[in-house]
Please model this.
Amino acid sequence: MRYVQWFAWCVNLPLQVALLHSLFRGGFRSFPVLLPYSLILFLWTIVNIAAREGGRLPAEWQRAYWVVELILDWLLYVLILSLVNRAVRQSRHRVKILRWLILAVGFFLLAALYLTQDPRLNEWMTNFTKYAAFCGALLNLGLWAVLVGTHHADRGVLMVSGGYGVASAGQAISHSLRALAIQSRSYPVLITGNLIGVLTHTLCLAIWWRAVARENAQRAARPLTGVSSEE
Model:
């Protein structure tokens, strides 16, 4: 478990820094929700390293862990909804689409939170986030359906949506394996679940970084294109 954790930190931290650098260079204008998400994720990773390497974890660590995880999950839903808004901005039904999506997601998450109740916080949140990841994957699939139906799909939105799709699928599989590992007390299954979660999250960060860097490059090239066309 320790090796998987250090692998995640060593690979993900540079990607998080690269993503933040691209966002602060102007990429946040294209994907504003990515900035608070990436900033909280980076700070939480630093706190994680300091807490886990500093010895015994605080008594309230488990509760704090799940609070931050739920905040990050909530920001991901806001990210996907913002991408849907960007994809359907030309549609006259944009407000209606967003309203129904928000209501559907809210109902699904509240139902999942109620149905997965467990007196043990870790088991409850593990099961809930499994269904929450599934809901996010469905929402992202709907976004892809909208993008595929357009003649000139926004490639930046496609890349960010694709990265999220990889991460949400990996998270759903990871949490399912963790829940199975808890029930069967299987350490290899637990390691497999954690490794899948780490690898898919790493791939997601890499895709997002490239998407934001691409947006920055396009934005920087626009004035040059304008000057050359005038000449």
Confidence is low (pLDDT under 50) at residues 225-231. The chain has one domain: 2-217. The chain is about 85% helix and 0% strand.
